[in-house]
Amino acid sequence: MISASGLTKVYGGKTALDHADFTVRPGVVTGFLGPNGSGKSTAMRLILNLDRATSGSVTVNGRPYRDLPAPLREVGALLEAKAWHGGRSAYNHLRFLAGTNGIPRRRVREVLDVVGLHDVAAKRAKGYSLGMGQRLGIAAALLGDPAILMFDEPVNGLDPEGILWIRRLMQSLAAEGRTVFVSSHLMSEMALTAGHLIVIGRGRILADTPMADFVPASHVRVRSPDLAALARAVAAENWRARTTADALLVYGVTPADLGDLAYRHGIRVHELSPVHPSLEEAFMRLTAESVEFHGIDG
Ligand SMILES: Nc1ncnc2c1ncn2[C@@H]1O[C@H](COP(=O)(O)OP(=O)(O)OP(=O)(O)O)[C@@H](O)[C@H]1O
């Protein structure tokens, strides 16, 4: 479990993380979602004690990271920057890490198998493709068999096969009961991977919610020259509805329910369409106020 309380980081005059409170729990992939520059990497660096918080605190399994006796056995992390020595082979890199962290050497072979680098383990990492490099970074994160795993934008630049592999791996790690915390600015990717979402914008936590609760409910959009009469008929049915400038949005019903109701009341209908809001839309609405850089026409 990861718990942040009032976590704040100010760089010069710039607040990268602003009194963030959140908890990342085991057994589910938790997506850390926010636009570029919203503070995701900053939060992850603070969790790993790679940077000092300006104020507030964050604990890993109840303790600050710096107080963990064997950090690699408790938290594995894949951050954006490549952290290995390119001249070394994957095998030697992992063996070095294992050696300096009291991890048995046989574990190196195990993680090489998990990430599928077995056949190229003797080759120098300098020649690895982006996808192979990510796999090596993940092997290093898994080396200490930690209960907590953090991945910062793990699918950036990967091909579809690599993306699918990472997605499945994260889900199986969570299914084993581990805490899996993964950052992304891609809503579509999070929608397929995460069961829980922490949404961040301009350093502030905007939502901390199960994925299923994040998407607004499906509804039916109806337009009519007699919208007021239709709204009254809908209210009489006790259906939940909301009026917009030119339409009525009715929740928890089908277009057929609504069409039949209008017919019974002799109300003409000019449009009747089912609406299934996407996670992308929910995310854009939530972060619209907090995007740091808009395009010229944004
Ligand atoms: N070392 C630093 N010095 C100064 N400002 C920084 C530093 N690191 C981050 N920032 C600023 O803090 C803010 C948050 O950056 P951060 O890298 O945490 O965002 P992010 O959500 O991870 O973004 P991205 O998706 O682009 O990686 C940004 O405005 C960034 O410019």
TrEMBL record:
It comes from the Bacteria. One of its GO terms (molecular function) is ATP hydrolysis activity. Keywords: ATP-binding, Nucleotide-binding, Transport. InterPro entries: AAA+_ATPase, ABC_transporter-like_ATP-bd, P-loop_NTPase. Residues 2-227 form the ABC transporter domain. The keyword Transport applies. PROSITE patterns: ABC_TRANSPORTER_2. Belongs to the ABC transporter superfamily. PANTHER family: ABC TRANSPORTER, ATP-BINDING PROTEIN. It comes from Herbidospora solisilvae. The lineage of its organism: Bacteria, Bacillati, Actinomycetota, Actinomycetes, Streptosporangiales. This is ATP-binding cassette domain-containing protein. It holds the Pfam family ABC_tran.
